[in-house]
Amino acid sequence: MSAESPGAQGDADCGRRPPSVTDHAPVSCTLARTFRVHRMTAARLLRDLGLYPGQEFLMMRLWEGGPARQSVLIKEMGLDPSTMTKMLQRLEQAGHVRRSPDPADRRAVRVEPTEESEALRAKVAGAWATLEEVTLKHLDPDERATLERLLIRVEEGLYAEGLDEPLTCPPAEGGGAQAESTSSARSTSASVL
Question: d(Cα 59, Cα 91) in Å, to the nearest integer?
Fold first, then answer.
């Protein structure tokens, strides 16, 4: 196939040329493509830890918030019950979580991180630090701050539209790093798997 043929050009583009149906949505198309590559990069980093994308958010929730009922985790993460069950089965098999009947209601399932999972916590933080650096390495500090600020505004606008029903984490009062951290975790956890 010659370099001028349509097939060769398509291969060289690697899917970067937006489909014509997105002509009126260039920002949304760019966000979708960027998110896809970002997710693939995260998946590669997490695979080295034995995790699938999204599992780290569940672990972060358990490490920071402590044990919770499975039904609560389903609502907080915006997942359907079967997806959560499969995720928990994998994490339990890996020794990262423990499920047991909830002492307050034996019909409910209580989920908690295992002591062994604490070793994974620093590795997850390291993977996310690497992801951050890889993602932003071509931006200077001012550009990084601007990008973060603009993405937070876009996210807040989408939440204000009510398009994401499992919204359970309002932005932290006063803004700043806490609000941005909550905002980042909220957006990524909405698409855990």
Answer: 9
| Residue partners of 100: CB distance under 8 A and separation at least 6 | 109, 110, 112
How many CB atoms neighbour CB 182 within 10 A? Answer: 14
Q: Among residues of the chain, what percentage have pLDDT more than 90? A: 60
Do 63 and 116 contact (CB within 8 A), yes or no?
no
Backbone dihedral angles phi then psi of residue 112, each to the nearest 5 degrees: -145, 150
Backbone dihedral region for residue 53 (phi beyond 0: left; psi -120 to 50: alpha; all else: beta)? beta
| CA 183 to chain CA mean position, Å | 11
| pLDDT tens string 151-184 | 999 989 888 887 655 444 433 333 443 333 333 3
Joined together, the tokens standing for residue 147 give: 């990008």
Q: Is 175 left (phi over 0), alpha (psi -120 to 50) or beta?
A: left
